Amino acid sequence: MFYGAVPTACIEQVFRILDFSAWKAAYVCCSGSFRIERALKAKFPQLPVFGNDVSLYSSAVGYLACHREFNLRFEGALSFIEERPDVNSFFERVAALLVACDMARYGGRKNDYARKHFDYYVENFELFFNRAKDRLDRTIPEMPLDGYFCGDWRKHVKQAIESGAGILAFPPFFKGDYESQFKFIEDNIHWPAPDYDLYNPKMLGDIIDEVDASGAPYCILSDQLFEHRKPVLEYVTGRKVPHYCYARTDKSSVRHLYKAPEPFAYDPIDPAKLTAESKVQVVQAESRHMDFIKDIYLQKTIIHTTGVANFLIFIDKMLVGGIIYSLPKFPTFGHSTIYLLSDVTLCREAKLSKFIAYLATSNSLLDIVSKKLISRIDFVVTTARTHNAVSMKYRGIYELLNRREADDPAEGNIINYGSKMRAETPQEIYSHWYWPKYGKSYVQKRNA
Ligand SMILES: C[S@@+](CC[C@H](N)C(=O)[O-])C[C@H]1O[C@@H](n2cnc3c(N)ncnc32)[C@H](O)[C@@H]1O
Predict the structure, then answer these.
(1) How far is the CA of 87 from the centre of ligand 1 (A)?
(2) Using only C-alpha atoms, what is the Rg of the chain?
(3) Whose CA is nearest to atom 12 of ligand 1?
(4) What is the reported pLDDT for 257?
(5) pLDDT value at position 256?
(6) What is the pLDDT of residues 48-84, one digit of tens each?
(7) Which of 9, 345, 348, 375 satisfies CB 3.0 to 4.6 Å to 353 for a cystine?
(8) Domain spans of the chain?
(9) In this structure, which residue's CA is closest to atom 13 in ligand 1?
(10) Is the link from the previous residue into 268 a cis peptide, with omega within 30 of 0?
């Protein structure tokens, strides 16, 4: 539900070179979706952690996580929430705010498409509200904060230095970016918003100099390079904006996550050889292996994006295809969502692409993704581009979430599909669903 979250792999890299167990406390600046806090609490449960942000979204969640509250009133386009009898306590108000943040994508726009989607959220508010409450029930216990400061991160830095704590900051890369992202929310929800001077990334060099001179331990992530200061860590994925880490540490780490596609030997699937007893195998894969497969079976011009988890799917040791998950794009449709970035199939026959798309919802795969992200996933969202009204691949197995015409009408429709996680193993999906529904009749026809 959030733009600009620090990549999990980057957090892992930071954890390898910084010894947080030596810190007295951690003051996290610009908490956003509290990824850093959650990772810190998972690895160093004893370390006192203090969050900070200026946004209503983070401040509401941050207050909830340290058992505090403030007044929050829904107004204007969101006043219907205020009238609901089930939105009373601070917890309920924060849950309603999470739904409102998803609605914000449509609330600020005046076209028919946006209006319809906004109305859909209003009509089905209870469903999204209940999901948001479940999500808070799951995530808040993972981030027991020792304090939260709703205000400018430069003040939080000062408080950290004064109390002898360490500083972890991931300030915005662009001036005013978050303020414009949260405009709809700020316009339609009344809350005691903090006063602060807009942060300009041009100030960062001086801020790091000050923090460094204070002697406090620190770790500041940025996309900027400075002439007089060397980053201790560099994190780059494909052609995305790099993340540099400035810190007080002797260790250093440079990680370019883009690796050239790496060929490997495999037997491609021959669907005519499938049987009712065929064995399905799912193997975690490196992104360079996925890129190799995508280079052969998808358009050559595709720029590879590294996923958070990749899987190769084999049936009877023949390679059927692959699945790549990435962090969800905004919005998350009110769930704990993972984005299915790619579900490539080696063979267009026998509805194998449907099999791979179905498999991407299996809890066997999503449990692995949840562990990697240190966050419980229960929903998969993906996007189909098609000239038809629906995508045949996802029809019947995913729910159509929304559809719009591409900006260039020649490109057809862009359709978002979603599915709940299924408590079915890949083998069960094959034996109980794919084989009786598609595989058997295909093999019978081929052998007739
Ligand atoms: C790059 S995000 C941080 C993401 C977060 N670390 C995560 O992984 O989810 C930047 C955050 O900075 C917050 N922010 C922007 N200006 C701020 C300021 N002056 N003081 C504190 N937080 C600020 C934004 O609201 C946003 O949540």
Answers:
(1) 27
(2) 24
(3) 30
(4) 42
(5) 41
(6) 999 999 999 999 999 999 999 999 999 999 999 999 9
(7) 345
(8) 8-256, 267-447
(9) 30
(10) no
